[in-house]
Queue: 4 jobs
Job 1
Amino acid sequence: MNADLKLYQSNGSPNSRRVRIFLAEKGITVTQVPIDLGAREQFADAYAAINPRRVVPTLVLEDGTAIGEVPAIMRYLDEAFPETPLLGSTSIEKALIQMWERRMELEGFAPVMETVRNRAAGLKDRAIAGPHGYAQIPALVDRGMARVRDFYADLEARLGEQPFVAGSAFSAADITAFVTIDFATNALQFGIPDTDVAILRWYEALTTRESFSA
Amino acid sequence: MNADLKLYQSNGSPNSRRVRIFLAEKGITVTQVPIDLGAREQFADAYAAINPRRVVPTLVLEDGTAIGEVPAIMRYLDEAFPETPLLGSTSIEKALIQMWERRMELEGFAPVMETVRNRAAGLKDRAIAGPHGYAQIPALVDRGMARVRDFYADLEARLGEQPFVAGSAFSAADITAFVTIDFATNALQFGIPDTDVAILRWYEALTTRESFSA
């Protein structure tokens, strides 16, 4: 399906990747507009006009509406293209998938991001993404690693009970968890612990999906 | 409207208040089950079985389904009781309200919470809500206050352009912003700056709604 949508994104951005996989799973093709984070293009006036928070990704609709924040972009796509729902079909499914997707973000994705941003030499006064500069706090690096350890332990318990993060079916919660793990592996050299057999089984199965190369 | 729902909550919890106001705006009456955070009742086995993250609030449905995380609870209520939608009616409205509600949370509510939890004497090893204990980091208190200042400045700019946080209509984003401000005022003694005339005008108007005493 070709939609008249533009996704402002960066190939190296894990938040962008959450949306790219979501689109691929739904079979929606959009126009990708690259934003060069290395060249600080997200702070240029042209991009700030589209996303005042100056973060990627942003989805821009045909009428010019700009949608920022990954869960809001996912929400739009699942509402406007209801085939292959990734956020659930019934009221209960929608609530539980949103709950689990959020937990993966708050307990996994956000701690990995916080650790990376508080230790990267190039982000000294950019410890939080967005329009405001905040100095790094070194103590957040150790705490972040502890939180990632707890994330793996909790996810192992969950996937020992259910085949997918939100329960019996694949959903957006799996996408966020998977991107979190690749991000932790690549940016923190903190991959899935060998003993986490349930996570390893689930991860292997997801890598066979074509969308996960997006 | 009387729904056969139970809300496990605490009167002093700002996250619980977000849901109480949401319910009142929609005119839904639920059974409230108080959880005594002062007595650490959220860590008791009975509550952990309902919400493994051990945080309030949790919405429990007639069939026993337990929904945690405020935005997920709001989602369920707006789907199951579509009258008086607070998360939008069209795909675009739903996405933009979710985006703005999330920004109020990430840029306002979360920094206030982080500041409170990292300085309260009674929360030394409980700097993050949830099942895992993390030590306080004093540097987060100063940074948190700076973030709350930036939140007020950004909200003043937004409400100078639009009557409500998400645009022309009242929505869940206003509830989260309002609860954030009361929380900052009461817990950090950081109320709306006198010069923020747009926020003051909006805040005054919201206090006249009956739901905001919930």
Job 2
Amino acid sequence: MEVNFASDNNSGVCPEVMAALAEEAERFDAAYGLDQASARLEAKMADVFERPVGVFPVATGTAANSLALAVTNPPWGGVVCHADAHIQVDECAAPTVIGSGLTLHPVAGAHGKLTPDAVSRHLDTRRDSGVHTVPITGLSLTNSTEAGTRYTTAELGALSELAHRRGMRVHLDGARFANAVAGAGSSPAELTWGAGVDIMSFGATKGGALAAEAIVVFADDLLDSGTESIERLRKRVGHLLSKQRFASAQFNAWLGDGVWLGRADHANDLARRLGEGLADAGVELAHPVETNMVFALLDPATNAAARAAGATYYTESTPDERVEARLVTSWSSRLADVEALIDAVAGA
Amino acid sequence: MEVNFASDNNSGVCPEVMAALAEEAERFDAAYGLDQASARLEAKMADVFERPVGVFPVATGTAANSLALAVTNPPWGGVVCHADAHIQVDECAAPTVIGSGLTLHPVAGAHGKLTPDAVSRHLDTRRDSGVHTVPITGLSLTNSTEAGTRYTTAELGALSELAHRRGMRVHLDGARFANAVAGAGSSPAELTWGAGVDIMSFGATKGGALAAEAIVVFADDLLDSGTESIERLRKRVGHLLSKQRFASAQFNAWLGDGVWLGRADHANDLARRLGEGLADAGVELAHPVETNMVFALLDPATNAAARAAGATYYTESTPDERVEARLVTSWSSRLADVEALIDAVAGA
Amino acid sequence: MEVNFASDNNSGVCPEVMAALAEEAERFDAAYGLDQASARLEAKMADVFERPVGVFPVATGTAANSLALAVTNPPWGGVVCHADAHIQVDECAAPTVIGSGLTLHPVAGAHGKLTPDAVSRHLDTRRDSGVHTVPITGLSLTNSTEAGTRYTTAELGALSELAHRRGMRVHLDGARFANAVAGAGSSPAELTWGAGVDIMSFGATKGGALAAEAIVVFADDLLDSGTESIERLRKRVGHLLSKQRFASAQFNAWLGDGVWLGRADHANDLARRLGEGLADAGVELAHPVETNMVFALLDPATNAAARAAGATYYTESTPDERVEARLVTSWSSRLADVEALIDAVAGA
Amino acid sequence: MEVNFASDNNSGVCPEVMAALAEEAERFDAAYGLDQASARLEAKMADVFERPVGVFPVATGTAANSLALAVTNPPWGGVVCHADAHIQVDECAAPTVIGSGLTLHPVAGAHGKLTPDAVSRHLDTRRDSGVHTVPITGLSLTNSTEAGTRYTTAELGALSELAHRRGMRVHLDGARFANAVAGAGSSPAELTWGAGVDIMSFGATKGGALAAEAIVVFADDLLDSGTESIERLRKRVGHLLSKQRFASAQFNAWLGDGVWLGRADHANDLARRLGEGLADAGVELAHPVETNMVFALLDPATNAAARAAGATYYTESTPDERVEARLVTSWSSRLADVEALIDAVAGA
């Protein structure tokens, strides 16, 4: 038996999305975003975020992140991000390529989160020699984070306030935004533009879609002036989908009737149970479990037992003999799998 | 009633592809191409082309074209293509952006086709002043062409021979390769590497998929040396799909059991009927109808009648008062629609 | 004896410039343009052009052209230029590289000159399909032209008016602007911003400097908003000179006391004499001689005689058996050399 | 009185270089490097380095560094450099722009120097997830360093050996190579290719030239295969000088008869005296004085006294109330100035 905790991008496609695709498949409609599903998506997103937004679907999160950063920073700018951010460690410098030389400036922080203090310190201590130095023009935050934690609206607001005060745009990598919102007690609006986010990469793929990501633009001046640059650059890096309506249809189904939050709730709930179960079995967790990821420090025997039980997951080495196992739940994870893994670990 | 002849990318998704997606949706599998469907795709493509190939799925034809050109030409190179080629007129310079400054060099030719004479003349008469001039390093052919015609294997072979003799790589834009193969009397192998094609953009989207395009590598030296550059650049422009298995699954279903050629046969057959019907009604055709596109020169009254009958299609102006209507059939076009359009035109 | 008519960039450095370099060599001063010579250059240029300007020295004309185009067009834009323009045929696509994918759109025209009609026709007949097509955002003119002719202020004004009306910026490649101004009966101001030029590449190298080119910004909005992009991009392509004061010193000496126009007058005068002498000897000229270049159609015997007399020059083939010889005079050409060449040709 | 210790790029041009320029100014010669001075330069460089080399003059050190890195690393590669390296902190990401997305990976080290241990640790601890992660493909060393220290041949050899073993190319930033060689007891050959350096940026500008930098290629395979990429990219970023012979003439005069080392000896000697004098006056030095830079930790009163004496120099703040003053000597610095500064400090 395989019990997949490798990543939520190993999950399948949820029935609501498949039903929407099947329905859309029967119809003709215009290409390149001039279709009815894409028009509905813009209205749906405005509804979700409680304000007018610009919506630009693309096929991958890397494309969404890179395009969003490219249109909110000059090519000679720099973007501060967490040292473990996906844009920094997992996109092979795509933001630099698509951003025509835009650079990333990693800053460390506990549990995958940046703090105003850490960002300020970075800004204040780096060399600044005018035209010779890259100016910092952007801040990219990830919510939920790569450590499975989430930012509160107060934390986001303080970081955005700092960024704006220092002339920086705020980008949110929302590949797992659904997991951040589910059970947060804050609305999508409060967790984005309400907290100062200017532009966002909003991902549905990990949450139950097949391939549906979108750049969502909040800032009024960007809505006024920046959309041609998004549309042009999206086209020029091959991310204007001819049958865009199928990406839009995925989003429409996933956002409709709260599917996205329900699916994320399920994943978050299983992660919580998994974390509690592992902790009860004496396993130390590297980060608090706040969304759909559990980071468990496993000694060799425990790790072997979990593997033997059929669990797949990624590990990183640690300073001691343990490994840090990243265990990711998704909309398609099953409680039985979680329990099986807990049992395997508890028995080790 | 809407009768859509605007483009084959306005069509839906064929049932075979939808069935494969539905099946794949139920499963977990690895991300980023390390999945079973992608492994099967490589075998399937080798089967279709009767030789080992490299296969790199992406979401759009623009991405496939641009990546294929970028990895077969140096950034300072130039690519000769038809003046009406998609890469030249419809991709907002994406091959230049993704190719780090690669330039395109359009050459005219009747019915959407290049000839060895025209290419030679271009090469022989352009200025060459060493490092100051862009060297021509590639030839990009489109089959079936933007004019709905197709190249014979002999024509392809002569162009490739010329290109190779002059140090140029040969790329094939196969966004409508299915239509070129269907009924051609030549195999996919004969129409590609057998005729000297080094690398290809193979599109399934227009032929019945949702979003499935692939770079297919034939040339032995590229298979040996060039795949890291494809993989890296694909990642860096955001075209490595996390759930790539769904792109592979589309291709597998579409290529399996000859679905692709059967669907293309249908489209080609309807276009042939449409062309014959219009000609019988006295309409002049701009190009021979060899695949799934009909270019009809419509006088204002006829054009108005066709529009009134609900037909959607693109037009371009001509030197006289007629418009050139591009009428595209697809796997999902219906005979009744073709007949309705013919009737409307005949009645005008 | 070598009689060099190959190019004005084969000439040496005029004494006034050398004297200024020798004087500057004795001093310390700040690097990267914060020096006194660079401050004086800005004032000197304002004097020459009779208005405030932005001045950005660089080492080559290719850099000046590429940077000027890059900061006045979006990366997705296109620039119309003459089919023989230096940016189109002699810079190995540098404007595209430095312009992050900016494309050039050549338009033909007699004697190296564009006309409003030809530009309009190009704009009106090219395909425009929205985001899929590169929009034309710039017009680049060369004065004096690659054919050695010059534009009148009326011609420049008409082209600029057309460009601005259609939303295009106007760039002037002034690698040989001195030759265009000398004897023109129009001032530098009238031949640039007075005729609608927004930004210019102003070259002193061909006219007697060692390596001194500058981007000169006229348009008010660019002066307000565009200079950071020039400064940043100049730095990022390695064109901010550490000892910029030596480039500025060259310009100051060359522009001072009308040296530039005097030196250009000399070159133009020799070209006029050369053209007249060749015509008198029965040689057909391809273009009117208006500045410092003569394009002579030489039959094989005449060509051989000129070569035998020690003359160096570039040729291009023609449809008949003659070659088109490009004969360039410069500030350092000698009347005796011109006469020797005329004699050799007359004797052939 | 101004006593300039701000930078060696604030110095003038040494008489030997000016004499060569004056001589070259009188002559015609071919453009774009096809001249006699450039041919002599290639021979002269081969003589200096005791082996055949490729030589490519450019106008700035940033251009030389960026081009050298761009042609020895794939665009998707990464280059390890010291955290204070010029390419990292002073070139506004030019290596990334010219390298089409090449990234820099800073590693800290005492006194401006990298060690094999620090580089190994960086390589071993960074995340590597295949195509998602930038691979480290290059190592860039600076000699003399930004801290005014120098590497021994043994240190360079150990770093190069590590780099080559791990598949990385070795680049040397030699903006102050003359200062590193002068008095080193090792030859230019021993300090470059003899110690494993594949390619070098060799600067004469700081050492007494006006604007003369060169990419020098050592590695046999690069000499065989890589020069077209250098020539093309140099052209495409506007760094092929039309009157290249004047850059070559500067180098020829500067390298001839050991001028470069004599001038560097002078600068190094003055720095040594300055360092000793400051130390005798009780000033703490941040780094050992091994070439032409002194880093002095000055308390506010001393700093004020030095300023009052007319000394210009850059400072950086430190954790305590002192500033770190960077005092740079050059070929044109005078002993009297050094003594004046020492006196001013000693009197404070």
Job 3
Amino acid sequence: MSFEFDEAIALTPVGEHEYAAELGDRWQIGAAVNGGVLMATLGHAIALGLPAKPDPFAFSAHFMSASRPGPAQVTTRVIRDGGTVATVEAELSQEGQQRIAVLATYGDLSRLPDDVRTSASPVQLPPVEQCVSHEMAPSGTAKVPPLMQRLDVRFDPACVGWALGEPSGNGELRAWFRMKDGREPDPLQLLLVLDALPPVTFDLGLMGWAPTLELTAHVRARPAPGWLAVCTSTSNLAGGLFEEDCEVWDSTGRLVAQSRQLAMVPR
Amino acid sequence: MSFEFDEAIALTPVGEHEYAAELGDRWQIGAAVNGGVLMATLGHAIALGLPAKPDPFAFSAHFMSASRPGPAQVTTRVIRDGGTVATVEAELSQEGQQRIAVLATYGDLSRLPDDVRTSASPVQLPPVEQCVSHEMAPSGTAKVPPLMQRLDVRFDPACVGWALGEPSGNGELRAWFRMKDGREPDPLQLLLVLDALPPVTFDLGLMGWAPTLELTAHVRARPAPGWLAVCTSTSNLAGGLFEEDCEVWDSTGRLVAQSRQLAMVPR
């Protein structure tokens, strides 16, 4: 069986460390392709060149222009392949337009020691069946974007006021997440998850697209199968920019990924 | 008057986008040169090539090997110079050994709008005169490293238990910060500040060097003159790695910089 996510991040080698990708209109959000699926595509290209270090420990993506559905070119370069980690750069472009530059440190998550002293508070979410699917949005709100048709996202009812014009003002979104077609999570899918929810600025009543300038992801463990719990928050909206922190917890209660991004406040 | 920090990050052009640096033994911490002053050196090199966009909005540094006092080579490359921001990469090496790779988004902080809706809680610190200088460390603890002789750091007494073998276990350090020679803060100095305190793992009783794999800094505003309030914290120590978040607030109470790093737990 073939999953939508694997089709989306598929790559065709066209040279040494060069790949062709096809950015699908099924992953659009507005006119652009979702940044998370683009990060996963770049992360996939890097992993292809590092079979012994397949996992993005730290993945820094700097966004230069909005990607559009259609062909894209991905290039990678190993800067240094050390003992347990490798440092790599990658770039995605379309018709000569530079879209995203990545600098990443890769390794093998399965070789890390298994101590866990996480003191972060797990995402507090009501049971899945008490949460709100975007498909339950009242008629009259915006049409469900293609991206959200690939995802099964169930929001905490306490943070969906923005859909009704009554944002909480807290600057925090919480939701359960899985792929609609049942593909289980893995480190590459986590790169999607970290940028899959609506901008956290929705919860501040600032609707509209919030272009990401930079997002750095830390993937800390291979996620267990099942639902993921996702929380995004912001605490420093200033100068037309805001930071958005994201945590992803797996079904065993492990904090498997963290990210922080810098994005532009919607106009 | 010449300041120690400016001497430390001084660069001699040796070619187009190529600079020679001299890493000083006055900035050592253990056998290595402090990562913060190295980031500031790289940040300085990038700024030299971007006179209209001198500020590091987002600065991602991936560390490959520990830098030593002595000569270093810095190269920069502008990937894309767009309307209001530019995307740039840079690398620092010593005798052919790759030390640090950087991917950064630069712009002009003075051109950002002046809205501030920060909801983060300012660092809670007792007055400077009630805080604890590292120079007040009891005899018998480790000798003050060269780095700390450049800095005037005053720790909240509530989080210096580690110096007496009684760490709080909270995973948080708070301190006032300024340069000992009085140089006022600016965006480049903030890159130093974000990695200038001891590893936050000290507060968990894990003493020893915690090598940084990756650190991404967001500089959000030009800092006002005077003391900076710095807070570092960690909440996800697992798999031999931990994240360390840092906030820097200026003397006017503005959150001027944020960072998150991924580092290795001391053995």
Job 4
Amino acid sequence: MNSKERGRRRFLKDGAAMAQLGLAGLAAGTLRSAKAQTLGSETAEARAKDTRFYGERSRFVNSARTLVGTGPASNTPLQDSVGIITPSSLHYVVMRFRDEPPDIDPRQHRLVIHGMVDRPLIFTMEELKRMPSVSRIHFVECAGNTSPVERRSAKTVQETHGWTSCSEWTGVPLSLLLKEAGVQKGATWVVAQSADAGKHTKSIPMEKAMYDVLVAYGQNGEPVRPHQGFPLRLLVPGWEGVANVKWLRRIQVVDRSYMMKVESVDYTVLRPNMDGKALWYNFQLGPKSVITFPSGGQRLPGRGFYEITGLAWSGGGTIRRVEVSTDGGRSWKDAQLQQPLHRIAHTRFRWDWNWDGEEAVLQSRCTDDQGDVQPSVAQISKQWGVTTDFWKETETRVNHWNAIHSWKVTRDGSVQNALFS
Amino acid sequence: MNSKERGRRRFLKDGAAMAQLGLAGLAAGTLRSAKAQTLGSETAEARAKDTRFYGERSRFVNSARTLVGTGPASNTPLQDSVGIITPSSLHYVVMRFRDEPPDIDPRQHRLVIHGMVDRPLIFTMEELKRMPSVSRIHFVECAGNTSPVERRSAKTVQETHGWTSCSEWTGVPLSLLLKEAGVQKGATWVVAQSADAGKHTKSIPMEKAMYDVLVAYGQNGEPVRPHQGFPLRLLVPGWEGVANVKWLRRIQVVDRSYMMKVESVDYTVLRPNMDGKALWYNFQLGPKSVITFPSGGQRLPGRGFYEITGLAWSGGGTIRRVEVSTDGGRSWKDAQLQQPLHRIAHTRFRWDWNWDGEEAVLQSRCTDDQGDVQPSVAQISKQWGVTTDFWKETETRVNHWNAIHSWKVTRDGSVQNALFS
């Protein structure tokens, strides 16, 4: 992509009057694309409400996100997932400052790029959609997904792992916008800010901003949905969810990290043995996987053939291997991976299993193309300097938990969460 | 996949009691998976209606399928498409015998495999979901898409090309079910039948049935939607849409093709010069592409930079190359293809264009990995033995039209359908 973007650099030369409106140009949004016009008709709106024109789900399908804890957070129903795409309507939601997403009119929305740049820029949505775009399938996962404190009493995979989802995202590379604006010498970070009332902000190092970050307006072939940031969000592949700023309206180029409250308190990784040290700038999510069928709360009707299936993902790159165990980790077999593989995306794995009717402990373990292997609970504990029993009692919130997960199948076929097996 | 399936052959050995219920076992549907149980709660249903739990589109987004002609057919709004996935709700619809899809209770639905097999089989949906599955991204296109008779007066790409859509489909390989049933010597075709009142049927040669056909229950990460065949449809990659039988309930293994009315009259390809000959068994769709932006009915607000983008697909395999012309085919430039490439799938292409404000004719031309190149209108005409003017007047319906498509950009920026440029 870098060579592509170099080739495209300053592509706005002929159309410079459009993009380089400057910050004073806020009211200059006179451009209207035919796209906006075709979308704007009342006829289309009426038709969208007609099931013949906007195909609804069957009334027998009512898989939904479920509320976990208090506040406006809900989890993807991974136990119902098939393939690698999460339906946009079922993408997990964590909102920090509100119960409902803001109701943004895309014709009024603007993205501002300013700070340490040669040419501050302001874009309408229509202008962004004219620019060179890319589409990529990526997961987004909350750093708190599967945190032991909140998840140890959970029953289903929706409750234990439902803060991860995967979509085909479409947008403009942030690097392209930054190059158009002209990043000044000494600029080392960007600060992204949301248009919602909470003004959620996130600092991102320039190196990542120039690498693979998207300013995304499309999700699974249609506009990003309101809960996911309509009309515009940041997509920071492989980094914790909080970095993927929704309702994006401002990108400031700066020479330091601005650690906002949410970054410095809520999202640092405290060492649970309380030696006073914390891991800052630990943004990338490690290799992780979970079996979605059979999973907690389900029941196998009897011995015989089952396809064990689940999802694996890593912030570090492409999943190269998933192994499955049915005996609590004593032996492992290679699962099949859905092809083609996508970088920093949910990867579906499948493994054929003949259940003999005896008690079984199902686990999955993934490896990414950097060679990083999903750790066991024992390995994570050693890394943190605690015993495995620590996780059963602690009230310390732990982010970036990516340990191998266990589901216990009892002889009656019921499947139970066995987080610390 | 073949080696995979060979390895899995007779996987039901231990669970044979489940699958080999035989045709008399229709009432034996006593198995209930936990999945069905978790889906069935009224609480989940209530939550699904709550926008916090089932994320709706923005009220500013009303892109919808549009009715074309008479009857229950509607087109995908390709002018609004981004990436390669079509939202399930916007997948094109052609229904032959009804205005609304049947309202099938998946707990009551059965798939029967019978005819020239050693072991007739009957499956509940829960049984199918336990079996080895695959997920693949494939397009589905109606053979009549872009037929000149219906499309020459069309204005938008939704009207000219909207009978093609692309989804991640999940299901069981038909080959696996056929191997379980045990195909008898001399069997050369399968006949697939729908559960709807029209009992739509389609004959498919055994060679294709054993190659890459899916019995699909998943679409874009959730159950197939009613308009697309809930709870079960056939997915016949690269073949005309009519072969992808929706609401699938019966697969009969036979020793000849049963040419039903819809196959023998509506879907044969008549030679338009009326020499009395017809092409039968012409099922595979050729290489085809179209520019979705800028496209008919849209208006460019002024000269300057635009990303030309569109979709290419081929029933023959993977798209390897897309070229774009802005001068009506006198010169061509290679477009960028969205990675990774998927076989028999929509492939997004992109090309950077600086419009000088003069009249332009935009075209795209694709090549698949078999070396097949999308033909020009002149080449198609020559193949049919007619002049290019023929298409402007004929009332003969032509299926499998895959000619290079032209959009004319006038100096005022408006974009017009120029089907026969």
